[in-house]
Design a protein that fits this description.
Helices cover about 25% and strands about 15% of the residues. With about 160 residues, it is an alpha/beta fold.
């Protein structure tokens, strides 16, 4: 019997894990996940955007506009940083990070510092904003490869039905 066709590529698999991780975020507007992978295709860590451990998502604001201290921005930890921190100090040198949304300048700093060598992303919808311009400038200076994932999938459906297992 020949092997099955139309299975996920490594890129589709790891981006799928980033997208699935994003589903853990409680942010009502923007849900981002991240998956960090070694050169040997081993998952090193995952993360999603949310408040730091111990900071209740019922007590902190999810607002996007208004007085800065009454918005989510000073409090939320982005998916990329969460994934880096969740690696518990593991060596991420030479790894790739998969993210649905191009990283901001703050996440770019963390990506560079921990030695990640490639950023694979789906969307660059904030291209041209100061945060993304700074991010791209730093990532380029540090020699981090940037790759927009050209994926053959439009969507991927998971089933929890026992009969599908």
């Amino acid at each position: 019997m020949p092997k099955r066709e139309k299975y996920l590529s490594w890129d589709e698999y790891f981006m799928g894990i980033a997208l699935l991780s994003a589903r853990r975020s409680k942010d009502p507007n923007t849900r981002v996940g991240a998956c960090i992978v070694s050169e040997g295709n081993k998952i090193m860590s995952v993360g999603y955007n949310g408040f730091p451990r111990g900071c209740s998502d019922d007590e902190y604001p999810w607002e996007r506009e208004g007085d800065e201290l009454k918005t989510k921005y000073p409090y939320v930890c982005h998916a990329e940083l969460n994934a880096i921190l969740n690696s518990r100090g593991g060596d991420l040198t030479g790894c790739r990070i998969y993210v649905p949304l191009f990283p901001c300048n703050e996440c770019a700093k963390a990506i560079i510092q921990c030695g990640i060598r490639e950023v694979v992303y789906l969307s660059d919808k904030y291209d041209g904003t100061p945060s993304v311009v700074a991010s791209k400038r730093m990532l380029a200076s540090a020699g981090v490869k940037l790759r927009c994932l050209d994926c053959s999938l439009d969507e991927l459906t998971l089933s929890y039905r026992k009969e599908d297992v």
